[in-house]
## 1
Amino acid sequence: MIGETLTLQSLSKRFGRTVAVEDVSFNIAPGEFVSVLGPSGSGKTTLLTMIAGFEAPSSGQISIGGRDVTAAAPNRRNIGMVFQKYALFPHMTVHQNVAFPLRMRRFDRPAIKDRVRRILDLVQLVGFDDRYPNQLSGGQQQRVAVARALVCEPPVLLMDEPLGALDKNLREAMQLEIKRIQSKLGATVVYVTHDQDEAMTLSDRVAVMSGGTLVQLGSPVEIYHRPQSPFVAQFVGKMNFVDGECQRDEAGTCHIRISDSITVAASSPSSDGADRLQQGQRVKLAVRPESLSFAQPDSATAIPGHIDAEIFVGAFRLYLVRLATIGQPIVQIQLPASTSVGPFRRGESVGLHAAKEDFHVFAAPEA
Amino acid sequence: MASVLSRPNDQSFRRPGGSASRYSRPLSLALIAPLLLLLSIGFLYPIGLLIKLSLFTPELDLSSYRKIIEQPIYLSVMARTFKIALFVTIASFLLGYPVALAMASLKRRLAAAAAAAVFIALWSPVLVRSYAWIVLLQRNGVANNAMTELGMVEAPLKLIYNEGAVIVAMTHVLLPFMILPIFAALRSIPQEYVCAARTLGAGASTAFLRVTLPLSLPGVFAGCVMCFILALGFYITPALVGGPGTLIVATLIGQQATVLLDWPFAAALSTTLLIATLTMVLVFRQAFSISKGFASVD
């Protein structure tokens, strides 16, 4: 195990008047793999450059293994970093690239040779020592970059969208490879990406960022099944949103009225706001396409609607249904391809059903 | 999986002559034809005439070349020319590299201002800049007056009409030719390389020496060759700020052709200078061939 704790304490970065990162705090355990997920401009890359030491934070503290490194130069932090475009030195061979950090730390010649051989073995690039980076494929360059970042066994490894430049198949193969190497070495990893699938596949925990702030930090399962804001709900996976209004019964339980005649009981544990909602407050009701199923249109618990389209997507079937509720939103329903329902006519009346714990309730933003 | 990973990525291999093959061969020829024609008439033909003039009077006659070799004065002029050119190139590099580095690392607006300063120096006439040095360095010039008034020297120094003055003035004139190629090379180095070197344990100066400097060598090569070649053939500045002891080849050729009207000898001197220059370029190229492997930084 080479990993160490990485702690960020109320880290902020302002460029002039714009705020790039605002009050981000989290604690990463040794050997943990954390993805920072967010759309472009969410501050995730700025966060990474501050951890690496290329930008000084406007306020806050960064510590690695309990040591405050906020003011330390990049070369004094003992961090490995894999760059988006790999940043392999074009005038050095693979061997020279990988040996570079060892040379900087004044390892002796046999030790350098031994370490380079071992790490190239780990990334399956034995025999490529004398090639120059421009003689390698994208995937090979990527693995050289990983080898170079890891050869000194840094306690913390930062990766800035390291697979962004690769095509889809190679990217998926490399994801598994990165995971394999990381679990073998036990480094603490901060992995920046805008690709939610990548974040879900690789991470122990996912930190979702938006507009410079950390909006949710949790395991992939938590992020997916218990999103704490509409942003996280729609950014990770697919999500249907329906407008509604909170109505409390005698026992104080909140039901969501989504049209004059339809009320949905929602008890999703992630909708922590549900208990705080007031009588008559406007809300957004969210439900994943795969949580919905068809029910009899006239059944008491079903949400009525009309079929708008039916799409075969290979592994599943996607149905678009226009609801007969406030605003008549179109929702998506995802069912296994082998499903026995349908085929439907366009405009056919259907009813939709979901278990009450699959509904998420968010307070609607003030209009 | 292994086969997927070891598959060569076509994009990462460079096609030889990639940019030229975008146009068809006849079109390429048509595009360069006007320049080729101009060069043939205005450059190759006169040079041919010159070489012929130096060899035939009208029969084959090597006496001009023999004169260059046998009379020590001409060889020493030749040697002085190369020495001055070398010093000017070294001085331009030492002064120019930091300027290029500063320009490359400045923010957009400041970099534009710095580039403008370099370009204005480039565009102002050589004659004006050479006279400026006379004003500065002459016996009653700015430099001497300042030093005598400050009591640093008792009598004015002889600052001009010597080799030092020629080197200083030529360095000033040629500096932009050194700065601009180095600046272009430095600008094309992605900031990520330096960042990567820093995270890998290199301090700021080590990162510069191991990454920035080697990657800027193609620009350094271009700048040095340009400076050196221009310095070899420099005429106005050495003629103005140089003295009798600083006769260089270009001035000598001018004298022979226009004052003494010894055209065959002027032609022989020119041919010798041309051959020497071409040889130096080839030697430079060989010495800097380490830069070939990464000539295309992207």
## 2
Amino acid sequence: MLLFSIILVAWSCKEKTEPAISEAIEKPIIEEPSSIPIYDFESLEDGYFNKEDGSTYVINFWATWCKPCVKELPAFEKLNENYKEQGIKVVLVSLDFPEKIKTGVVPFIEKHQLQSEVVLLDDPDANTWIPKVSEAWSGAIPATLIIKDGKKVFFEKSFTYEELETEIKAITN
Amino acid sequence: MKRSILKKWLVLEVVALAIIVVGSFSFTNTSEAPASDGYTIGDAATDFNLKNVDGKMVSLSHYKDAKGFIVIFTCNTCPYAVASEDRIIALDKEFKSKGFPVIAINPNNPEVQPDDTFEKMQQKANEKGFTFPYLYDDSSSIYAEYGAKKTPHVYLLQKEKGKNIVKYIGAIDDNVRNGAAVKDRFLANAVNELLQGKEVTVKETKAIGCSIKV
């Protein structure tokens, strides 16, 4: 029992010493099956919004508890699968509460075998960062931002695969 | 394995599609509506006559002595709404006696969000001890007229010459997830400014919320 307690304490300490958010971009957390990278808005912006590398970033804001988000995920997965060779990067930005990563987000990723990159945005001051994503965003999810070389288009809506494809073609042509 | 998952998604999609079709065109309309829809600051908000969890109908006009209203579109299910419940109760406690009672309205369609039925609203109100009306937007028309996009979504109204004028739209405060870490109480500040006869300084704020399910 004592040994068990020690292990438990050691484990809970380990949890607290996960890499700091700001370091996440420079030093990506090694993809343990039990975790996903956590960013604050600034690191998310640096890592995905402001890249002018010729890639098209499809950034989808979602959460495991958001029904319309979960419903449209297959469309984003299909886009990721079909267009990854053509420089399209799908990033699924989870707005789940950080304490739900291990109990909610990771099991969800495994259950649905999500292939797109999944990160968690942990930044409570939404009133500051929501307008930086888009002035048009009310804050409701799902919401999607498509970025290519500094050009941004924002959608507060649910997507079908065909609609996504149309927007991708519009921004890449 | 993958195929069976795909199949599952397909079934889900068909079911969801059926729900959308049954749920009429309002889904497409609201989810793609431009952000300019609904009220802006200074507009006169409509009154309503909606059923409360106690079975009685509630209208703003019933509140003869109120100086205004804290109208909050919220629901049983959204984690952001749930995280706000204690704060909504506290707001009602703080401002009802000063003339600004909380009026909570659930705009979600229980056919789309099964845990948002009227019965479950009654349960929620009982369990949490809501001190304010928790109304069911039966026709899903009030939230649309206000322009609420998500839960929770706040509209602060002040009575002026018999009309209810919109003075503030947005979030309760700057940290939906964690009430203990709040630095800026946007809504409370706005109500206090109105009580002091001042103009509201921060008139609109944003917060993450769950899209309204209709």
## 3
Amino acid sequence: MDLLDSIGQGLANALTLQNLLFALVGCLIGTALGILPGIGSTAGIAILLPITFTMEPTSAIIMLAAIFYGTSYGGTITSVLLNIPGEGETAITSLDGYQLTKKGRGGAALTIAGVGSFVGGTTATILLIVAAQPLSQLGLLVGPPEFFGLVIVGIALLVGLVGKSIAAGLISAAIGMLIAMVGIDPVQGLPRFTFGSAHLLDGISIVPVLVGVFGLGELLHVSANSITRPKAPKLRELVPTREEWRRSAPAIGRGTIFGSLIGIIPGVTATISSLIAYSSERRMKKHGHELGTGAIEGVAAPETANNAHANAAFVPLFTLGIPASPAIAVLMGAFLQNGITPGPALFQSEPLLVWTVIASLLVGNVLLLVLNVPLVGLWTRLLAIPFPVLCAFILVFIMVGSYAVNRSVTDLIITAVFGVVGLIFRRTGLPVAPLVLTLVLGPLLEQTLRQSLQISNGDFSIFFTRPMALVLIAVAILIVITSAATKRKRPIAEVILPTPTPTSTTQER
Amino acid sequence: MRFTRPLAVAAAAALAMTAVGCASLSRPTDSGEASESTDWPTGPITMIVAFDAGGGSDIGARLLATALEDELGVPIVVENRPGAGGQVGYTALANAAPDGSTFGLTTIPGLIVSALDESRGAEYDVDSFAQSALQVIDPMAIAVTPDSDIQSIEDLVAASEAGELTATTTGIGTAEHIALLQFNEAAGTDIRPVHFADGAAPATTAFLGGNVDILLSNVGDIMPTLENGGARAVGVLAEERSIFVPDAGTSYEAGIEVMIGSSRGYVFPDGTPQDVVDRMSDAIGAVLEDEAFQEQMANAGLQPAYMDAAEYEAYWHEQADSIGSVLELIREEG
């Protein structure tokens, strides 16, 4: 078969000592960058890009691609163990991941995350191999109106994230939306809430807000309360239990589907995949109510989804020549620098290169699995560091990370301010998840709405005459109605008071 | 940011003293350069790039920085200061010490829009910089779907009279938006913009998905889409045809006198000694002459377009005038 032949050759080429070595180096660098909050894959690839000018193109691209998907593995470690997510997608993981660490299951959560990422990444890559062309057409069906529908679905999922108090959830969501409004309005070009500062014209970056609310907020809260810190788990506690595997498997499956499908849509970040995968776990009958209190599904689903997304994001790059995310855009720069234009023509003009790079995605996912799962024990030793020392290190990492995004002192101030906001959230019991959701989706909601109306020249029927947009909006309405109905059926006491299961109050802490 | 000014002055003073100190200590340099009045460059030069590392502007600047290191014999440190469409970096550049130790990449129309649009509250204006040299003019290309009936700019004008057309931009006041307004004004068309403030990738996606009729983009940025057969260029808004899309006619050929694109050049903060500005200008000119360098730029989709300090300054002010009048239009549309 032609396809098997091509991928076979690609695999053989990806497994040469040199290419294997570069994939390994990329995975290591990616993991290291992921551990540092703020320095995401985009900055990592951009910084290393000039080094690759002298390298052989295939090796260069293999290494940069490995950095790209390696960062999402690294980010998981600090989110789960220390509650310091570096990017939006890992912020979702930390919601349950950190609660698991508090219960002494942090090692198991990391193992599950590693396996889930492997499954998600590998499945998405196989999809890329067998069905890249039709998938890319699917991605193109998503124009601004459909994108708007997708965002509305995301916003509707908010009802699953609000926690025990709807009012508290909506307050959190509104704050997130308000933060998202800061900056130059995307359509009129007028500054909003910038208070005359050029640094706010671009809006408030997500990373300083997240490391502030999650990382710094947690540090302040823990320092001020003398809460017992999670202990480093013993070696045998690193292995997930049979029960944990059994519960993770379906979550990994769903995460793979969400990540792979959403990943092929250009312009949608992995955070959205994570959010949707996580929210859908919350809506599951059996264990949904446990999410937020340290449920293994809450780590398995978003971690799988974001890695599936990262690999699926290569579909639009290889088939349409469209970089689906900022990190992929920098990666595309690497292709262009080497005189290679990503796109459908590449499969004809440079088949070996394309198939080698695709095969290297498979190889890289295996490498990350064997690198990270055995290292889980080492990572969890982080928790054995005396808290005052660890606290100081974390503070340094937080500040370096939020500075690194834009190399701007303003971001440090934003981090500090949101550290206090995070403390207030924890003290008052406001949930953090809705804030993350609206912070990520807010700008997209506004842009896609207004782009759609620019296309239709102000006619709102564009949302109802296009089938996919209509279906997505209907799904959103359905989610809200069913959630409202199930909420009402439950006895009031259960809605207001924490359920007897591992108390839901822990989620807000 | 108030406290930065005294700091900058102090830094400038300190640097100036160091420079004087070094000048008196260093031995006279060889033949040609000995005649120059100052001993520039004496140490590393910072190149402020107001965009993220890895983008089109950054790649061109980094290529030049590497070549300039050989030409000038001192390290050139590229410092990315992204934010607010370049405004954050331009502010840093305008406030830098005017002693030749800092220069930076500026793009037109981006810089001029940020300086002229009062709502942006920029701390600098079009006169805050000393123009040194232009490196690139990346003209704006107009592209349609490959199966479209539109073959030329003339066809486009005719089609826009027959029906409503939409075109992508990367946001209000961007090169694409200004190009579209200037084109509409000059050709008497009414092509409506659809703004994709989050960048060229979503704009391209919407175009490929058939949601927007026309893809507007710099030649350098649009090349991958053209090479992949996703779009066909019908024209460029320039006086001369682009070496990258030689088949696309120019706006001037169609009798529409609009010339716009993204032009990237290098400036010092205003007040930098003119001989420093000129020597940098000559150095950039020498680099751009080099064939190997031209090939590197071509790989990155960039067409060299050198202007020396005087030519670039004239071009700068000419652009400021024409962009100023378009901004009036945007304000009226408001």
## 4
Amino acid sequence: MISTMEEKPHIPAAPRKRRVPGWAVAMLGVAGAIALLSITSMQTGFPQLTSSGTTQTAVRLGLPILLAGLGGLWAERAGVVNIGLEGMMIMGTWGAAWAGYQWGPWAAVVAAVVFGSLGGLLHAIATVTFGVNHIVSGVAINLLGAGLTKYLSTLVFFPLSNNPRQSPPVQPFDTYSAGGLADWLGELEAGQRLFISDVAGILRGLVTGVSPLTMLAILLLPLSYYLLWRTRFGLRLRSVGENPHAADSLGVKVYFHKYVAVIVSGGLAGLGGAALVLNPGQLSYLEGQTGGRGYIGLAAMIFGNWRPGGLLGGAALFGYADGLQLRSGGETVLALVYGVVLLLGVIVVWQLIRRKWFSAAAAIFVAVLMYLLYISLDEIPSEFVSYAPHMVTLAVLAVASQRLRMPAADGVVYRRG
Amino acid sequence: MSSSTSVGTDEHPAVVLTGITKRFPGVVANSDVHLTVRRGEVHALCGENGAGKSTLMKILYGMQPPDEGTIEVNGEQVRFRTPSDAIKAGIGMVHQHFMLADNLTVQENVVLGAEAMHGIGKKARARIIELSGKTGLNVDPGVLVEQLGVADRQRVEILKVLYRGAKVIILDEPTAVLVPQEVNELFDTVRGMQEQGYTFLFISHKLDEVRAIADSVTVIRRGTTVGSADPKTVSSRQLAEMMVGSELPSPETRESTVTDTVVLDVKGLKLMTPDGSRPILDDVDMVVRSGEVVGIAGVEGNGQTELVETIMGMRKAGSGTITLQDRDVTKLGTLARREAGIGYVPEDRHRHGLLLTQPLWYNRILGYQTRKPTARGVWLDTDGAKKDTERIVADFDVRTPGIDVPAAALSGGNQQKLVVGRELSGDPVLLIASHPTRGVDVGAQALIWDEIKRARAAGLAVLLISADLDELIGLSDTIKVMLRGRLVADADPNTVTPEDLGSAMTGAGSTSAAVQETSVVEEGEH
């Protein structure tokens, strides 16, 4: 009686392409990215591109972005645009430092979540209860976060550290490494063989010096997926972001779900702040420490098409760009430009196959431009290097944002009745 | 059907509304409404838009509390605070504007809010598949709702209500979005379910349909029930007069005013989907002459919207030319085309016709921001705009407390009268009217018809797109049938029936001499 997908009489004629499962796309993407980096590092002679050190730094720097993006995912799936992630993250960094120097790293984590959640609560009160425009409220929270922490640091940290912009050092987490595995991978990496050494380098970076916070963050990703897509609560939360009127007409408590989502969102952004403070390279609160990572997290989520898997990809990309510039400087970032040229070459072929002449021509143009940049420079000027993640964000969003689909009622103020 | 009318009188009625009154600031939406729905019947509630049907149903469905009056369900008095209370009492509602989340699957939409019944997994899926048969829904529950057509979406809405165990189902203008064949299918579904003991409250202002499906009819006018009727003995005309409280309009145009002057000439118009895989408009040729109304019939989604938007310059044609009064406008922008003399009544007045939060006079300026009387040189002429809005309000009988109220404060019919009035000012040579009376009450409908007829008699060329086939047949001098982006058939409005048109629209081939196919549609081409 019930037929399958083939029989849909009212759907306008257009044969459905066979769906490739999401995990397969993800695996292909990862494999492609590694292959690209490996060829680039061979061609340009920069093994740092896939070294374990770079990967390790990328993980540490990608973590705050991942957490902020996850926060964005929660809020936006419930229909609240959360541009205030940055501000909530700043509150998280202050909270983490304040609790961290007194009671240790776990207290730092808890305090960061609490401080971030307070920011989320404020955003929820403004946008959900009072119907303030989501962007306006978010920007206000960013300003508030920066101002409030400046005030509080002067008040609390200055007497201790003699610096109003910095907290006393925070006690770090113990880190863990997969001993034997890491050593074996280290040997492989040192072998300098194409692909194998690259894969080994990346894997070694992933299993060395892992802090409990990293594990927690990585676990939060599948957990969020499970909660949002596989439970009754998640279905209700997402329905609120897609069509709150429909949800309301079915007895879903729209305001409640939006509140929960935005508070969780703030908590996750705050946790991202803790990841910054507890980063082994820094281990204290610093004014301006977030450096726009809340926004980049939001961008990672948009890049990931409001899905957890894509969000992980976005966070990895931005974390990698950040890690590479911090670790190896201008020369290697320039090598990355070479990688982009290779990637564009693949895109050109793909667009030609699809007979998208305009896109192909545009890709060729950019590729030529990038290649000229690559051969004419010895290294990217240091002024630009530190902006590598921001530039990657900009470029990726400009290219990728055309086929994205946000929740239908995202950013729309909902009024009952 | 007649068997179901003999419901035992000793049982309690399914729903009884007594003395319902609901006031909003400034208006009384319902005053002293009485309504009795017996168990197992299809009870129609008729009334003009703005008569208070929707408010009444919102009260019955728990979305708004009544100020006065009582609700009884199965003989027990109830108070609904939220829709969940109504659902628990066995009342379900299928909204006119579908309450579906497009980006969620059929299953997710159905189980939302009722997850406690069968969870959200396999058990729920099995239950949905079991219930789909009753509604005639024939798709996998895992399909996204955005992939479904209008009729299937409506089935999903009915399914939602069934899943929650509703016994009384409110259908709010369910046929407004359907073509005749789909309406018949819906009625078959309703009758089938009626036999299984379901009760329907059928809200409509399409009286032929009411008479075809209902066992009893209650008429509501200006917020209060004015009487009931037996649909088997009452005529559509009598019913309509009860609704309006006066004489009735008809879309019929009498004598032809068609001239030889070509106003709009469309040649070889083509438009592809954004990904370039498939044509939306395929070689459309069309001529509209001065004093002529050309009607386009077609199932929604076959390119009518895109045709209109391409002629208006809102979409860029892939190839082909559009000529307006011997002037090639193909390369002009929308504003320039409007200035060249095209008036446009968009199909969705909320999205394209009006700024709902802005006052009426401000809405008068839209599209006329470069022309008198709403502009003087580069400056807007607010005084002129206000004065001209007063004229429209008076001439087109827009019922409003003033021209400074936001457009959202007006009922749908009055908003539409304002839009039509605006688009007929500034002496257009061509009027494009997309569904000009959709969701509009009988009074406003009559006025809009009259205005179109008057402008046509004065030499206006009109391109009319409508899903209301009676309107299309009544107003048009020529009817063209659109299917999959092509004009596939011409029909003579003097002889064609809605059923003939309907089968031509679905590509079933013409069954009547009144419909002549102009080109062969290859099946399975795409």
